[in-house]
Design goal:
The complex is a heterodimer. Chain A has a 3-stranded antiparallel sheet. In chain A, strands 1-4 form a two-stranded antiparallel ribbon. Chain A has a domain of 96 residues: Alpha-Beta Plaits (2-Layer Sandwich), CATH 3.30.70. Chain A is built from 3 helices and 5 strands, in the order H-E-H-E-E-E-E-H. Chain A is an alpha+beta fold. By secondary structure, chain B is an all-alpha fold. Chain B folds into 2 domains: 71 residues, no CATH class; 278 residues, no CATH class. In chain B, 68% of the residues lie in helices and 0% in strands. Chain B has 14 helices and no strands. Chain B is globular. The two termini of chain B are 38 Å apart. The chains are: A alpha+beta, B mainly alpha. At the A-B interface, helix 1 of A face helix 2 and helix 14 of B.
């Protein structure tokens, strides 16, 4: 009984000292803290972060927009008229469409990377930027289209004129050889 | 100090006020330092860094916190007892500040030169209990009241082993004056009371183990008296939100924190005076070797504060090592272990001093 009492006392003091030894050792172990804004953890190789579109290579094929599961990519295009040179992409594809609108609502984006794979020119890809918070939600709609509004209007007008001309030509052609049965009943 | 100021100014009130302001300024600076130090110690013991942004390694963090605290709205719950609620933090701080009146920082900076110093300190520090009970009761909140009740039970219980050890030290030194106790343990560390006191002889070596026991008891029980982990059940944040100061905001809350840290230093100072030579240097004075006795009081002040801060550091060290005790364990430690040991220690020291 008395023996147990002294043993308890001794254990109480001794175990506290052991604990103190452990904490004292930890006092001199370098901290594991990473001072985040100053020091950044190196990212893994295939991280998926903010999307970027290289508009020089975009042919406006709309495949990324269709692949997107949350529909955060919005693309509008206008056909070019013959004689307009849109240049070629870096892998040699000829561009045929004016991309008048290429909006990515990054607030909706779920970083699944599904839009990246279908791109025939590899112009949409994930970057390693992950700090892009904003105070206004509107600022998170990224507009990648390079054409100015005036340009867009002009291109649209051009195409409409061209289409109208073509329509007129077609109509004229149709008048020239009338009553041609297009479909034959079977 | 008071006499010196009285001679300069020739006015009792001014001299008294200035003398009283010195510990107050010391407390404020010490608290600013100690809160930062505690956060740093806790952080490094957990392999973190702690505050790093404000100033060099976050030294100004407490200043920034204090400025934030000043700007806070002073909220008093509608159901609270407004008068008691507002008095409580002041009373708690007054209690812990009043203890500083008798603490000799150096041979020249004495505060009040009362003959019953240690008795006064033990008595006045009980005022804190009243303040804590007041805070808990007036908050009209279950958690606060529970915290206050626990605190009262704890402080009253742990005052007994403290008093018993202090009593044995009084028997050994033959004085209640803290200044005289410091003077007796002259300027070498082997003359400190923990090593059996200044008189060389057989009794000195006989006393050493009992002095260590006494030191351990008084350290543990004063740790409980200032409500620090592992004895922080009055403010156990995982059980009682924040204990007796749950309802307090801003400056009133800051007063509680101020008094907690002031208490930490004052009990460390008392332990230093009782066992570790008070303001005496362990290795002799630079002032004596240089032949400039005017330097000695300053050296003594530095030694005293350094010793005090060391014991405050040990308190922090224990806080971040040990988990909190249960209420029944707390009472077991006090009544079944500390008090019997303190009693036997008291008797043995009494017999040895009679020899």
């Amino acid at each position: 009984m008395l023996k147990e009492y002294f043993k308890n006392t001794w254990d109480g003091i001794w175990t506290v000292l052991i604990g103190m030894k452990v904490t004292f050792r930890h006092l001199f172990i370098p901290a594991v803290t990473i001072q985040y804004p100053d020091v950044k953890v190196p990212l893994p190789e295939r991280v998926r972060n903010r999307l970027y579109v290289n508009m020089d290579d975009c042919i406006g094929c709309d495949q990324c927009s269709r692949a997107c599961p949350v529909e955060c990519i919005e693309i509008e295009t206008v056909k070019s008229i013959p004689g307009e040179d849109l240049g070629i992409t870096s892998n040699g594809k000829k561009k045929a469409l004016w991309v008048t609108k290429f909006n990515i609502d990054i607030a909706k984006c779920c970083y699944c990377q599904l839009c990246v794979f279908p791109c025939p020119t590899e112009c949409i890809y994930m970057t390693d930027v992950y700090e892009f918070s904003e105070y206004e939600r509107e600022n998170l709609i990224y507009k990648f289209a390079t054409l100015t509004e005036a340009d867009v209007k002009e291109k649209k007008l051009n195409y409409e004129k061209f289409a109208a001309e073509k329509e007129a030509q077609k109509a004229a052609a149709a008048k020239a050889k009338p009553e041609t049965p297009v479909q034959t009943a079977t | 100090m008071y006499q010196f100021l009285f001679n300069i100014t020739g006015n009792e009130i001014i001299a008294g006020l200035i003398t009283a302001c010195i510990p107050l300024v010391f407390i404020l600076i010490f608290v600013l330092f100690a809160v930062w130090f505690e956060r740093k110690v806790s952080a490094h013991m957990q392999d973190r860094l702690g505050p790093m942004r404000v100033g060099w390694h976050g030294v100004l963090q407490t200043v920034a916190d204090f400025v934030k605290m000043l700007q806070k709205e002073d909220i008093i719950a509608t159901e609270a007892d407004r008068k008691l609620f507002s008095i409580a933090p002041v009373l708690v701080f007054a209690g812990s500040f009043a203890a500083y009146a008798a603490i000799p920082f150096s041979s020249k900076l004495l505060g009040s030169e009362v003959e019953v110093g240690i008795f006064y300190v033990i008595a006045i520090s009980s005022l804190v209990v009243a303040g804590i009970l007041m805070a808990g009761w007036s908050s009209n909140n279950k958690y606060s009241l529970l915290g206050a009740m626990r605190s009262a039970a704890q402080i009253v219980s742990y005052e007994i082993p403290t008093a018993l050890v202090v009593l044995s030290m009084v028997m050994l030194t033959g004085t209640l004056s803290l200044d005289k106790m410091s003077q007796m343990q002259t300027a070498h560390f082997w003359d400190w009371n923990i090593f059996g006191g200044p008189t060389f002889g057989f009794a000195k070596f006989l006393l050493i183990p009992f002095m260590f026991v006494g030191f351990l008891i008084v350290y543990i029980s004063t740790l409980a008296e200032v409500n620090r982990t592992p004895f922080d059940i009055p403010e156990a944040e995982s059980e009682l939100v924040a204990g007796y100061f749950t309802e307090y905001v801003g400056m009133k809350w800051a007063m509680f924190m101020l008094s907690e840290y002031a208490n930490m230093f004052s009990v460390s100072a008392i332990i230093t005076i009782l066992f570790f030579g008070g303001y005496q240097s362990p290795v002799g004075y630079l002032g004596n070797t240089l032949g400039a006795p005017a330097l000695i009081p300053f050296e003594q002040g530095i030694w005293f504060i350094a010793k005090g801060i060391f014991f405050v550091f040990v308190q922090m060290w224990l806080r971040w090592t040990l988990p909190r005790l249960r209420v029944d364990q707390l009472m077991t430690v006090c009544w079944k272990y500390l008090i019997p040991y303190a009693f036997i220690n008291l008797i043995i020291i009494g017999i040895i001093t009679l020899l």
